[in-house]
Amino acid sequence: MADDASDNSRKRPNLLITGTPGVGKTTLASEIAERLHMKHINVGALIEENKCYSGKDEELDTKILDEDKLLDIMEPLIQQAADEEIGLVADFHVCEMFPERWFDLVLVLRATTEVLFDRLTARGYKDRKRNENMESEIMQVVLEDAKEAYDPIIVHEIPSNTLDDMESAIRRVQEWSTQWLNDHGQEITSLTAT
């Protein structure tokens, strides 16, 4: 087992897809993982499966995340991907808690207010929760958090309003991944979008 899942020990890149709830993180991450033969970690599902919360905030109608427990669960998953020499794509609406060494690229998905409103309404979000997420998107909270937590050169803002936006993002990630592999002296034959 390598010392850690840092850039120096990995043969394939790791991506973090983040953004306000409802912007399409899990959908995009799943597609990238499938098409580019990467491991997908749906952090929200991992939290639920492992009960990584310490209570519930009734006022905000949300669970209180136990970050330490989550990171302890994720560390071996990220190391396993490195050991198996496969890339990884994780998605979650919070990005600043993850160690910078885990990721080579951070995509912050953005949606227009109209698209986001419709998506959050379809999810059944209560008015207050929907409004707080809408305000977060308008104020670019996740984008600013990502720029503060990671080297700004690896943080990219990506539109996520349409299927064409998703296809464009997948192509961009494929091109970026190919360049990462070239830069790190790795074979690129197994990295192809289908």
How would you sum up this structure in a few lines?
This protein is α/β, with parallel strands linked by helices and 194 residues long.
Model description:
The protein has 194 residues and is α/β, with parallel strands linked by helices. Helix content is 45%, strand content 17%. It is built from seven helices and seven strands. The chain has helices at 25-36, 43-49, 67-83, 113-122, 127-138, 141-149, 163-183; strands at residues 14-18, 39-42, 53-57, 62-65, 88-91, 105-110, 155-159. The chain has a five-stranded parallel sheet, with helices on both faces. A hairpin with a 4-residue loop joins β3 and β4 (62-65). α1 (25-36) crosses α7 and α4 (113-122) packs antiparallel against α5. The longest helix has 21 residues, at 163-183. It starts with 13 loop residues before the first strand and ends in an 11-residue tail after the last helix. The mean pLDDT is 91.
